[in-house]
């Protein structure tokens, strides 16, 4: 596999050199699987000599620090196995992976999100893990069934959740206390949420808007659809028509006219999802939309205390959702060993403790129980508590989004921006989106 080319910031380290997590010693491979303190260890696959696996993921420096720590734990148990790691921010990550895939040199273990899982599976870039799941070498028996399903494409397990997350409203609790206003709550309708946001803007005398405008956010629209019995996708096609999207755009047009949201320029600045640009962090709004597992990172960016609740609408519209997946390269020379690493990341209690909530709550219910008492960060505890409160009420998981989903997401954002900027009316924007999205999915 190619040498790592992306830096892993660490005090005193040369940021340009390869990172091998441990020396490749001559001792036999040791047990790697099993939930520490909760279940019996499994034996890792035998290898005839030292092995160096390449790993690539996206995220920030904190994720890198914790992931490196956990991979060291694996090497401690399997001294013949070392790791060459590469990581970077989300921007450009899939461009880099596409280049590697074109050259047939994808890293052994990669991180994917649900927008790319289907594409990588159908292009046969990622390994079918079904045989390892069937005999529990990758043990998914402690995962919620919906979370297991959300890693399957065409009936094959091609990704294992690296964490579970919730589409959430993150809000400025300090600001709301100062304004003497109620906090948003899980289960409020979208109409109630918009009314709450208008009240925040009014009481705050326009110095801060109530909420980010999520009209171009596919997560919010997807949940709004499911709250009405609909779906974003039906198999490989859109699951909604022009009327539904027009109604969604109209909801947020009314919200803007009632000053529930800030200016279009501020909204567009935050739409990329970059944490430092979240409007609840910059102080432009009292609430933003994010993934629940991002709460600790967002909290580090502001002096205000942040709270978190589920996105508006019925809780049953949410599902056991993977924040991201671990997947193996189909061309890896060590498929059984990569599968064992995935099993370790999923089921080992010590690994779960070290990873914390950085990628979401542990996918394994057993690991969640094992690590519960070790969580000390207040923001992480709030995010974990939200997940626990919703767990028994979540609806059935859909299939991961089809190939072309990233293009559909971009088209939805463009359509919302055209309505927000007054260039196009809601119905015309919806009709244009559907035509272009259908073409993107057909391609």
TrEMBL record:
Pfam families cross-referenced by the UniProt entry: SBP_bac_8
**Protein's UniProt name:** Carbohydrate ABC transporter substrate-binding protein, CUT1 family
Q: Which domain of life is it from?
A: Bacteria
Species per Swiss-Prot/TrEMBL record: Micromonospora echinofusca
